[in-house]
Every structure is written in C-alpha cells, then in structure tokens.
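The following block was generated as part of the benchmark described in Methods. Ligand: S-adenosylmethionine.
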Amino acid sequence: MSQLQDNFGRRFHYLRLSVTDVCNFKCGYCLPDGYQSSGKPQFLTLSEISHLVSAFSQVGTQKIRITGGEPSLRRDFTDIIRIIADNQKITTLATTTNGDRLAKHAKTWYEAGLRNINVSVDSLDPRLFYQITGENKFHQVMQGIDTALEVGFDRVKINAVLLKGLNDQALPQFLNWIKTTPIDLRFIELMETGLGSDYFQQHHVAGRQIKTWLLQQGWQLDPVNIADGPAQNFSHPDYLGRIGLIMPYEKNFCASCNRLRVSAKGKLHLCLFTEYGVTLRDLLVSPLQQAELIARLHGQLVTKKQTHFLHQGVTGVTQHLASIGG
Ligand SMILES: Nc1nc2c(ncn2[C@@H]2O[C@H](COP(=O)(O)OP(=O)(O)OP(=O)(O)O)[C@@H](O)[C@H]2O)c(=O)[nH]1
Ligand SMILES: C[S@@+](CC[C@H](N)C(=O)[O-])C[C@H]1O[C@@H](n2cnc3c(N)ncnc32)[C@H](O)[C@@H]1O
Ligand code: SF4
Ligand code: SF4
C-alpha cells in the first residue's frame, strides 16, 4: 500500500491522535477558563480507534502520539495504549500529558506498551507553575516524572512553553536540572490560537535568543534525524539531558513536517492550524471500510498546504491546542 505523501514530497509516518478535548488544568495559553463542557462528549471509541490505527498503519504510520486535552483523563486510557501497542506496524508509541496522573499510573501504562512520554512543565518554581497552569500540582507532576524515569520509559521529554514575563528567565534553573537528569527538555515558542490572541501578544518570545546563548555556552546542534520532527536539538558533554527548541515562526519550520492529526471526534487535520477538519468517523464503523478510508486519506493529503499562515495571524479552526492535541 502506498505511503501518505503530499504534493511537496513530504511523507507522513507520524500520527498525533487526540482522544479527548477534556482537561483538568487551566494553562493560560490553552484553556485559561478550564474545559467548558457542551453536553455529553462523543469521543472516538476503542473500536473506532482500532480501525483508524489499522488504516494509518497500512499507509506508513509508524509512530503514534496519544494526546488531548488531557489523554489520561479517559477511563479507558490504558486500553487505548494496549490497542495501539498491539499493532505491530506501530514501532513508537508515545503520549503527551500534564503529568497529573503519572505517579499513580506510569507503571500500568508502561506495561500496556507505552514507551515514550512527554510531560508539560512550564516552571520549576511551584508558585509560578501554579500561576501558569491554574493548578497547584508541581510536586505531584515532578513525582510523576521521577516515577516515569524509574519505570524505564525509553524517552522522557519535558515541554515548557516559553512565556515572556513568566518563565523566560528560568533557563539556568532548567539547565541545573538536566545537568544530572537524563531527560530531553524542550522549549516551545508560544503559538497564537483563535482564543489566545491577547495572551500571545503579551507573552510571545522568540526561541532564537536561547539558541544563540546555548551555542555560546558550548551546546552543539545535533544532526537532524528524519524522524525527529520540527525540534532543533542540542547536546553538551557536561549535561546528561538535552535541549530542544520548537520555533514555529522560524523560516522553513514546516519543511520537515512529518505529522498528521486526528481530533478526538475523528476529524483529520492536515495541519495544526488548518481551516477545517475532514470527517473520518463515517468510515470507522467496520473493518470492511478500510480501503475507502485509506482512499480518503490519500485524497486529502494532496490538498495539504506547504506551511502554516501564523505570520499573517491566521490561526485556522484551532481555537486552542486542547481541541486538537498540540
Ligand atoms: N506548529 C507546530 N507545532 C508543533 C508541531 N509538532 C509539535 N508542535 C508543538 O510542540 C508541542 C509539543 O509536542 P509534543 O506533543 O511533545 O510532541 P512532539 O514535538 O511531536 O514530540 P516528539 O514526538 O517527541 O518529537 C506541541 O504541542 C505543539 O505545541 C507541528 O508540527 N507544528
Ligand atoms: C495541548 S497539550 C495536550 C497534552 C497535555 N494536556 C499536556 O499539556 O501535555 C500539548 C502541548 O501543547 C502545548 N501548548 C498548548 N497551547 C500552546 C500554545 N498556544 N503554544 C505552544 N504550545 C502550546 C502544551 O504546553 C503541551 O505541551
Ligand atoms: S496545555 Fe494541556 S494541560 Fe494545559 S490546559 Fe491545555 S490541554 Fe490542559
Ligand atoms: S504548522 Fe502545520 S505544516 Fe507546519 S509543521 Fe506544524 S503541522 Fe506541519
């Protein structure tokens, strides 16, 4: 079966699958007022997820990241992990979490087949963590990270959104942490979203200045691995951890785009900032629909745009990243 490819020669072997829009945190850049429910949510069922993963795996998907909202809030989260891990073509299974449930469940998730975990930690100062996320859970999240390291996950990455006036002076504190802890720390430039425009104006800061500083301090840019995605990664002989920078406003950021997204309600998003999602759910009812589903994926891929239009302030259908999983 032919691989998913767009008109710019980019191949898509990485699926970011959102399994819920619901979240229990209130990050200022994402859901400052918390998750607003509008009736009983109808998120993809286990059976639909299984059909979806099967189709994507037949057209080249090797890596799946389960995301949300907060994916671990789903009561069947461990079953979701198991179903995806059972697919032999998926060689990398990851999740991105706010870490709230990590200390309690890391071992169970690992045993179900999860091997890579990204945890969002915007500050190492408990008070600032509370201020940014709306939750006083810094110590609980850090305990979760320790548990994940003990359990033996292949990769533990930490995501921090760079925020002017909040955590943009915290680099030394973060560096101190990764000196002796083998984690990958990634700074993500704040991205504008439909509902996050004012926050963006107030707190956006470019990651480029961190790059310049790191290079001055002897950090070296790692060679690009085709499976890496858009982060630029840096290593230093005196540090056990690594640093990654995700800078979506940099030139050519999208040239290495290798990922597609499916929302918790089963819509395909060709870009994080696409203008619309394409319904897949009608083709997730039965395994007999796989050929039709695959044909729809191929048909959509050729319409994927070369880049996002964030520089012009066009944020597409994405009101906040909890709606599509970042
Ligand atoms: N604009 C843009 N931002 C992205 C993209 N991929 C990741 N990001 C941003 O980086 C954040 C962190 O991503 P993660 O969920 O940790 O996953 P990842 O960057 O794909 O991580 P790895 O799989 O470990 O390379 C996302 O929530 C987004 O904010 C992308 O393709 N485009
Ligand atoms: C939407 S969350 C979903 C997973 C989980 N709830 C978490 O926070 O890790 C995924 C990632 O998106 C990032 N994110 C959310 N809104 C963002 C924005 N406006 N700009 C940049 N990153 C953002 C978060 O920091 C998080 O690392
Ligand atoms: S970034 Fe993640 S934890 Fe924070 S509000 Fe959004 S979905 Fe929730
Ligand atoms: S912004 Fe869109 S096109 Fe660019 S890397 Fe992200 S998903 Fe791909």
